[in-house]
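Students often ask what a 'structure token' actually looks like in practice. Rather than answer in the abstract, let us consider G2/mitotic-specific cyclin-B, a protein of 404 residues. Its sequence is given first.
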Amino acid sequence: MSLRVRGTTNILGTAKLGMLNSENADARMNGKMVTRATTKTIKSTLGTRGALENISNVAKNNVQAAAKKEIKQKRGMTKSKATSSLQSVIGLHVEPVEKVQSPEPMDMSEVSNALEAFSQNILEMGVDDIDKDDHENPQLCSEYVNDIYHYMRHLEREFKVRTDYMAMQEITERMRTILIDWLVQVHLRFHLLQETLFLTIQILDRYLEVQAVSKTKLQLVGVTSMLIAAKYEEMYPPEIGDFVYITDNAYSKAQIRAMECNILRKLDFNLGKPLCIHFLRRCSKAGGVDGHKHTLSKYIMELTLPEYSFVKYDPSEIAAAALCLSTKILDEDMEWNKTLVHYSAYSEGHLAPIVQKMAVLLNNAPKSKFQAVRKKYASSKFMSISSSQELKSTVITDLADENC
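Now compare that with the structural description of the same chain:
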């Protein structure tokens, strides 16, 4: 009885959770009245129960003892475990369970021998093993890191964007540049990860490759691409309402949701194409560069995002070329050695045309109408790299002239 009253109290309390603030006081008073009634009922029940408790327990124990005795006489049982009694009473036949053998411990000597052989081979080639000190850290996956990057290069070729997709579009290259320059500002406003920005542009280009978009829907595609990228990369992505606000209510939540479904269907839900930033980290480790060179490389890579002419290059090519140009600017004595060639998979000769185009971007950045990336990297958070004196060196102008 007390259980039923307690359940009723919970139901009444749950039903009142959705009421307005004006009704909260009444709900609390009703809850107190129900609680007093419940307490009174419990006390009266306990009083009755105390009088009958001994009688019911004795009767129950006597019935159970008689039942056990009768079962033992009929079945001749000697076991006292509940499982054995249940099997005998209902006549179940249970097959004995075979003991599961514990798996043998993995022989790590084979893995160690393979790693030592790989290290010896690349040392004979004059290449440093940049993962030799990472074997004790399982998070760095030193046993598989080279296979992982080999697979990433396969994926970037599989999801490569056509260089002529703009020909089928109503929009122009300039419209794309304006949109991406604005998306960089939105990305900075929301304090999102760098991976989110690169993935946003990648989703945008891959969608425009397979679907014609009107001028009025271009910004919708842009913010929806960032929403998808944020859900993929961020721990706490912005809500749809944030993107409605940032577009000044140009699009509704329903329109963004519909576009999100459309983009994911067109891309067949394949969002795993590698990003420039992934390859840059590997190249920076191979080159042993400092934070200054690494940050300048990121600045150069982000300058390429609004430029349609860089769509034809793979993310690994852009990352390697950005690091190559960064080292030329900040450390003219540093060479693109065998270790960098091995881990980036590109020679300096292969990267030379891309480096020259990047030098043109750096040279023209102060005069460009689109300043989102440059202003972003002018902050102390990014070492004020876009306003550093090194970017006024003759190395950049010479390389830019070679491209002309």
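One point worth highlighting: DSSP finds 17 helices and no strands in the chain. Ask yourself how you might have guessed this from the sequence alone, and why that guess would often be unreliable.
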